[in-house]
Amino acid sequence: MADLKLVEVTSAADRSRFVELVYRLYRDDPNFVPPLRGEAKALISGIAGNPWFEHGRAKFWMVVRGGQVVGRISAQVDSLVLQHVHPSLGHWGLFETIDDDGVAALLITTAENWLREQGMTRAQGPISISIWDEPGLLVDGFHRPPLVMMGHHLPYYQRFIEAHGYQGAKDLHGWELDISKPFPEMVQRIVAASEKNSRLVTRPIDKSRFAEEAALILDILNDAWSTNWGTVPLTPLEIAHVGKKLKPIVFAGLIRIAEYDGEPVGFMIALPNINELTRDLGGNLFPFNFIKLLLRLRAPKTEWIRVPLMGVRKKWQGHRIASLMAFQMIEYIRRESVANFGGRKSEIGWILDDNGPMRAIADAIDSHVTKTYRIYEKAL
């Protein structure tokens, strides 16, 4: 341990070193998709780059050995988590390290100590930085690259975290399915029944009114997910930020809003797997890769389509209409994915391990769990 130096990240140069560790650690991992450096730096750059800092505070550290960064971690306290989840729950995340027990122990201990100083009595991780970013550690499903906006980790991280006294608090699953073929007959019957109900309409978004549509979807999301495990509401500033971030990869036919008697009550978002279009960029958009990416995004074709979010307002949850609208949106987006985006496979999720209604939908369309992300917890 004597050769290890703990460095708090305080400058732009520190943030660059913090971010760069990932590219070196994963350079021999065949399933690594280099994140875009600009986005990775914005995540940890304060309120100017990440509106989470409007209601959260965080510290970032690196461990250096012989002048080289060999590990990193964040620790964060979110006032919305304290209000909506638990009054003394802190998080840590952005955990990356070489395969070294001493480095991992120093990182986790440092994060825990800071959380204790903030008055926290429990710690959860990895959460990088909020439940809306990349929550959980990949513990199963290292066989293929992650899809857009999903994490990827080195297998030995699980050993370090569990050795430090953490136990699994919640598993988040990615469900894989073949969308190149029609859904089972039972699902097709449900879709046909939904189409006979004139009071139910599931429409594609109007991208000419993108800001308004994004705000509507995220308002439904805040209501639909308000009682989900670990969920905190998105703030107006975050809603605007998410809309701006997603706009380049949003395509009208892959996002639908469900209306009942003209009232927007549900939504489903699907995204082309942009990781397939950015993987060869090495994490850099400049000086010329941004042109390459813009051209690719004009009419993207990706093998995989990811469904990151779906929701129905609480007053409709458990109602037969919710089932009809869910399967109608799923089928219409499946058709669009195959016909216009080259989609052959899809990943739904993440889905909480105890989310019975969503697991039932995933089962009905012949999908199966192929990736598991685990959020760990420990009393401090």
Radius of gyration, Cα only, in angstroms?
21 Å
Count of alpha and pi helical runs: 12
* CATH architecture descriptor of the largest domain: 3-Layer(aba) Sandwich
CATH fourth-tier homologous superfamily of the largest domain: Gcn5-related N-acetyltransferase (GNAT)
Please give the CATH class of the largest domain. Answer: Alpha Beta
| Class derived from helix and strand content | alpha+beta
Main pleated-sheet profile: 13 strands, mixed
Uncertain regions: pLDDT < 50 for 5+ in a row? none
Could you describe the 3D structure shown?
With 380 residues, the protein is an alpha+beta fold. The chain has 2 domains: 4-173, Gcn5-related N-acetyltransferase (GNAT) (Aminopeptidase), CATH 3.40.630; 177-374, Gcn5-related N-acetyltransferase (GNAT) (Aminopeptidase). It is 35% helix and 29% strand. It contains 12 helices and 15 strands. The strands form 2 sheets. Strands 1, 2, 3, 4, 5, 8, 9, 10, 11, 12, 13, 14 and 15 form a 13-stranded mixed β-sheet that branches. The protein has a two-stranded antiparallel ribbon with strand order 6-7. Strand 11 (255-260) and strand 12 form a beta hairpin. The longest helix is centred in the last third of the chain and has 22 residues, at 320-341.
